Amino acid sequence: MVPALVLVGLMLPAVSHAETADALPDGSQVVYAGLGFNTYKRLQFGEFDGSEAQELDTALRTRLDMYWAMGLADRLQISAALPLVHSMVLDSDDLGPCPDLFEDEDYCKGFFRPGQLSVAGRYQIVRRKVSLAGDLSLRGDPWNGDLRGRYTAYGEGTVDLQPGATLDWDADLGGDWALRLVGAGAYTFRFSRLNDDGSAGSFRAPADHISGLAELQVMPPGPVSVTLGSAGMQRLWGLDWDAAYQEDYFPTQDRWTVLWYKQVAAYGKVSIDLPKDMGLHVGAGRVLRVRNGPPDMWDFTVGVHKYYGPKG
What we know:
- The structure is a single chain.
- The protein is mainly beta.
- It has one domain (about 30-310): Porin (Beta Barrel), CATH 2.40.160.40.
- The chain contains 1 helix and 15 strands; from the N terminus they run E-E-E-E-E-E-E-E-E-E-E-E-H-E-E-E.
- The strands form 2 sheets. Strands 1, 2, 3, 4, 5, 6, 7, 8, 11, 12, 13, 14 and 15 form a 13-stranded antiparallel sheet that branches.
- The longest helix is centred in the last third of the chain and has 6 residues, at about 245-250.
- The protein is globular, with a radius of gyration of 20 Å.
- The termini are far apart.
- The model is unreliable at about 1-20 (pLDDT under 50).
């Protein structure tokens, strides 16, 4: 039976996060809660080239996304995010790798746990028609380290430091129409374990990675706005899924973290302004290209935010 690479969650921006270079006004707050899920049932070995991928048992992860942000001072914002995740195998049609692998009874076992906690700061460097912000976040889920080798895994059990930058440009199209272009990039330093279990020798896994996104936000007259975007990430080193990897590394708990992984995904979101400074957000995304991972992963979200203005 052939196993599937488990993603660390689809690398799409959460609908609650600050998707522009703006910072909240001093003393204001935003809270968000939403439901999301992602699913896949295919595995691509090596670089995606249009060839047929291995079909597998369907994996399903459902989550409760929670987010909070506050304007701490002029141009300065802090935020925190945490998902609660339920992961399981949706079906088993003798496709593999479930119900078990290597007589590992936990390999396909479901679980319910907190996902990756993120605490972030943002400073708005430029506040004009073109705005620029610098971001720094500390992320981690060390409580999930024992799950990292499962087919149902969510997270990698590490702690990461991620500096980044966000740039946006606003345009008034007239007639109450407006659009915004957003670009963001980040480098993730992984405080990773040292892996020396196989022929590749000692190296840190999972590797540092780079990530980025580009978005177009269209705001017509009325309460509805639409966002279309693309996001990608790439580990800077790792192994391809070949015979040596299968023999030396797949039997270990770091079977997923040692892989050289990259992906590009597309996504869309519809946002609706509601009374009392609230908003409804519905989004969907799909992986377009992948290396050593599922080429058919879909991710869906629906949630509501509430804005609290500065007091006084």
